[in-house]
Amino acid sequence: MKMVFRWFGEGNDTVTLTQIKQIPGVEGIVWALHDVPAGEEWPMDKIWQVKEAADKAGLHMKVVESVNIHEDIKLGLPSRDLYIDNYKKTIVKLAEVGVKVICYNFMPVFDWVRTDLHKELEDGSTALFYEKEKVAHLNLDEQVQRINANPNFTMPGWEPERLARLTELFDAYKDVTEEQLFENAKYFLEEIIPFAAKHDIRMAIHPDDPPWPIFGLPRIITGQDNIRRFLNLVDSPYNGLTMCSGSLGANPANDIVAIVNEFADRIPFAHIRNVRVYENGDFIETSHRTTDGTVDIAGIVNALHDNDYEGYCRPDHGRHIWDEQCRPGYGLYDRALGIMYLWGLWDANRRKLQGERIGD
Ligand code: CS2
Ligand code: MN
């Protein structure tokens, strides 16, 4: 397991590369050019800037999250070819700086969705929260205004230019079914996977978060059967999965240990975090510790270890603790604690199952 840490870039993250380097066992950053709109080719000079900063900090940059997919690709419009072409051009450039994994998602219009970014937990820490009933009645205009009122941080998937087109996009999706979305994904994968393979970059689809349709928009990366179907659309080791325990875990019907066991050799990247799912379907993000949420984090790490997992892994979201002011879900402290928990589980496995001394 190779530990990495998400970094939003100079001036766009409260966490510094020096701090990241001090977290035990972290070898690289998970990065992206967050100011490049989905569908555009990434400029090489900006990629080099990140490379120089990472090199200076002694961290690698082999994992990108995300090169976002333009809506026209998800919609299957004729203009998708142009955006697929741009995607390929970006792949070439990323290969040039040594990128090995690209995490991306195939969710229409929205990336992750929550109803409260600072919901208080019993201990006074705050975390991202999803109230199921509220999403059913959410006023989208209000939501758009709220995000636009906080220009300091760009939120993944909530880019202003996408929000400006919201009504238009909803309209465009009105006839796109789950089946159609799978078809459109297939078209994209058939173009991209052989190309990525040629450049030795593994594509890693991120599960939908939450893993069910919202606002009447279809979602397809929701559970084990659909993941199998997606990976079989183009059956190649370069068509992989980002195993995100928090996203999949929001639906308690998902058996994530089984998902790890079935797709182990197709998982180049793992996001590990816990959530606590309530009986009414609401969920809140908790500390990584197994007992704090409803996801079997220990079981997942055991399963990764049993499968000799050699891919990249990052703690996903963390709570906001110790008065840290940070991007929602992406503070330093709780994610660093999460890493130490993951290492604890991993090292205990190594010692127990292989009789290895830690450090060998
Ligand atoms: C991430 C997602 O912060 C998060 O929830 O796990 O935004 C993720 O980066 C994208 O869905 C992957 O494309
Ligand atoms: Mn994730």
UniProtKB/TrEMBL annotation:
It is an enzyme of class 4 (lyase). The keyword Manganese applies. One of its GO terms (molecular function) is mannonate dehydratase activity. Its cofactor is Fe(2+); Mn(2+). InterPro entries: Man_deHydtase (IPR004628), Xyl_isomerase-like_sf (IPR036237). Its EC number is 4.2.1.8. Keywords: Iron, Lyase, Manganese. The keyword Nuclease does not apply. It catalyses: D-mannonate = 2-dehydro-3-deoxy-D-gluconate + H2O. Belongs to the mannonate dehydratase family. Catalyzes the dehydration of D-mannonate. PANTHER family: MANNONATE DEHYDRATASE. This is Mannonate dehydratase.
